[in-house]
Structure formats: C-alpha cells, structure tokens
Design a protein that fits this description.
Elements (H helix, E strand, L loop, with lengths): L3 H9 L3 E2 L6 H4 L10 H5 L8 H12 L4 H29 L3 E3 H6 L1 H11 L6 H11 L6 H24 L5 H10 L6 H31 L2 H8 L5 H11 L9 E3 L3 E3 L2 E3 L4 E2 L3 H4 L3 H4 L28 H18 L4 E2 L21 E3 L2
Length: 365
C-alpha cells in the first residue's frame, strides 16, 4: 500500500490485523523459514499482536513513555548531547581535514545510550547490540547471516534478563521481568521479544532520523536559516523531516481477516499488506503538488512516520525529544556544518524498512 488514503484506511480498519495466523500462505506452510523478513513475522512482541494481547503488552511499558516521564529524561539527554558534540569536535580536529562521520559519533550513540539507560543495559553490553540490531533491519544479508545474528541478539538479551534477575534495577528490563515473574501472562519468549522490539526500534529509527534531518537541512540552507533565525520552530522543522524523509519506510506486516476494499481496491481475505509510510507521506493527493518538496513552512506537516491508531509508536515522544535537543545544539555550535560529500556518494542502508545512510561524513565550521 503506497498512497496516503490506502495506508490510513488499512491502519484504521479493524478487519486488518497484525497476527500472522491471518496470513493464509503462512498458515499453509508456503513461507520458507529462511525468508528474509521471517523474524518480523514470527516475533511474539506487541508489534504482531492484536486485541487484548496487544493491550496487555503495550500497558507494561506505556508508563515509561508518558510526556511526564520523557520530560524527566530531558536533562540527562542534554548532558549526553553536549558530551557527544565535544567528541564530534575532537574527532574533526584529529581527522586532519575537519571531516567526521556524524552518524558514528552522534546519531548512533545518542539514542543507543538513551535506550540503554532506560532498559538498564550497561556500557560493556551496548556495543554488542549495535551490530545485531543493524542486521535486523538489513535485507541484504543472507538467510544464514540473518539467523546467526538473530540468535546473537537473542543471546545478548537473555544474558541481560539473567543479570537483571540476579540484580534488579530501576529500569524497564527489571519492570518487564517483574511482570513476567508475577505471572500476569507475559511469557519468557514475549519478554525477550519485546526487548528486541523496544531496544532495536528505540535506537535504529532515532539514529536515522537525526542523520536524515541533518541531510535535509544542510541541503536546504534557506530553510535552515529560518530555523536559526527563530522564524520557524525546530519542532516544526523536525515534523517536516518526519514527513519528507521518515526513518521508517515500511513495517511488515498486516493481514486481511476478511475480504476488504482499501482506497477502492478489493483485497481478498488472508492477504499480507506492506504499508508504505514514506510514500504515503509524499502523496500528491494528500499534500498537493509540492508533496515532494522539503518545506518547513508548509501548513500541513502531518504525517504517518510513527504510524497511526492502536499501533502508534510508543517511543514517538522520546524520539522527538532527543532530536529536538541534538539539532539546535549541533547547529548552534557548528552553524556552517555541511555534508562533506555529494549526496550521490552517500550509501543508503540496505533495507526496505529503514531509511538512512551507512555513514554521514560532515565538515564542521
């Protein structure tokens, strides 16, 4: 589904669900175990649940992402941002030509540090998550690599759970373990699967959003000037980035539980739907003839970057807060910052799910 109308209807229609049991081909054994997106289908986290199961899993962590709780995290995020910008300046100075990879030094460690602290992941364990999480979103790897990496990630998170059972802390992993051990219906597999979801989605998407925002603003200097001069709020500029170049392109899958019609197109029962959030956000029928243009002054900057309805992204407020703290500080310290290579030289991440680049070399000024 690629149009705004079709995606919006699919998100709102109760006849379209997330549980794989509704996919006829999967239930009939037609989908091979080494299918590249299989881990997005067989998971047991709230991304693939409906109804009471979905509500039960969502309720366990929803309190951690309330506006009040996110605001409590702001001071710590600001400290992390300032430290990373110091690292960025130091790395640029040591590079010889003033060029440094913004993705490696700022975009990746900021959300990884924040989500790790939320879930009680110690500094020694954090690097073990980066590689496997990246592969989780990568459709260029072989089935064997994907399976091996999945088990690697599962192993790291199993060790995390064991460590938190032995020494509980004031973190979300401990809270999920308490819910599991209180026998409220959270299974051991659900516990690990939800950690996979929260930690991977909570950092991968924000990492790409930061880099996408820097690319968008530095390639539209007139609009960056509007923000720097205080004529447009940073929050409004970030919403336009989310519309124009969202960090998530697709999220597999949803399924029709009966024959439906979406945007005038009949879809049979038991079919999988891949919703195109990025294309929906640039749909001429929704945003008019300027839909392909990056314009932070546009009147309607609404978007589907965080989905919509019952599966709306729980971490949306946290992601917005992180990006709203890092971008102003980045450009206040380095107002002439620019991407150091032509846009055609940037390598896209090999994924239909994520939208971003593998490295973002910038020159600090």
């Amino acid at each position: 589904m690629t149009t705004h109308e079709a995606v919006s209807e699919a998100l709102a229609d109760p006849r379209i669900q997330k549980d794989k049991k509704y996919w006829t081909a999967f239930e009939n054994g037609e989908i091979p175990a080494d299918w590249p997106l299989i881990s997005w289908i067989i998971n047991e986290n709230m991304l693939s649940k409906d109804g009471e199961d979905h509500s039960r899993l969502r309720k366990l962590v929803s309190k951690a992402f309330t506006p009040r709780r996110v605001e409590m995290l702001r001071e710590g995020v600001v400290g992390i941002v300032e430290s990373l910008l110091d690292d960025l300046e130091k790395a640029a100075g040591e590079s010889g030509d003033g060029v440094v990879d913004l993705r490696a030094v700022v975009s990746q460690p900021l959300p990884l540090t924040v989500i790790s602290e939320l879930f009680g992941v110690d500094e020694e364990t954090r690097p073990k998550l980066h590689g496997p999480v990246g592969v989780f979103f990568d459709q260029s790897v072989t089935p064997e690599q994907a399976m091996a990496t999945f088990f690697e990630l599962w192993g790291v998170l199993t060790e995390l759970v064991a460590a938190k059972r032995a020494e509980p802390g004031d973190d979300l992993t401990t809270a999920l373990i308490a819910a599991r051990d209180a026998e409220d219906g959270l299974t051991e597999d659900e516990l690990i699967w939800n950690l996979v979801l929260f930690i991977s989605a909570g950092y991968e998407t924000t990492m790409n959003l930061i880099s996408n925002a820097v690319r968008a603003l530095t390639s539209h200097r007139d609009q960056l000037d509007l923000v720097m001069e205080g004529k447009v709020e940073w929050s409004k500029a970030i919403e336009e980035v989310l519309r124009w170049d969202p960090p998530g392109q697709y999220v597999p899958m949803r399924y029709t539980t009966e024959d439906v019609e979406l945007a005038g197109v009949p879809v049979p029962k038991g079919e999988p739907l891949l919703l195109g959030y990025a294309s929906a956000n640039r749909d001429d029928a929704r945003y008019g003839p300027t839909s392909e243009e990056f314009d932070i002054t546009r009147e309607d900057s609404s978007h589907l970057a965080f989905s919509h309805g019952r599966h709306y992204c729980l971490g949306a407020s946290l992601a917005r807060m992180e990006v709203n703290e890092v971008l102003p500080r980045l450009f206040e310290r380095f107002p002439g910052l620019d991407v150091a290579v032509d846009d055609t030289e940037l390598v896209p991440v090999p994924s239909i799910i994520s939208s971003g680049v593998e490295a973002l070399p910038v020159r600090l000024r």
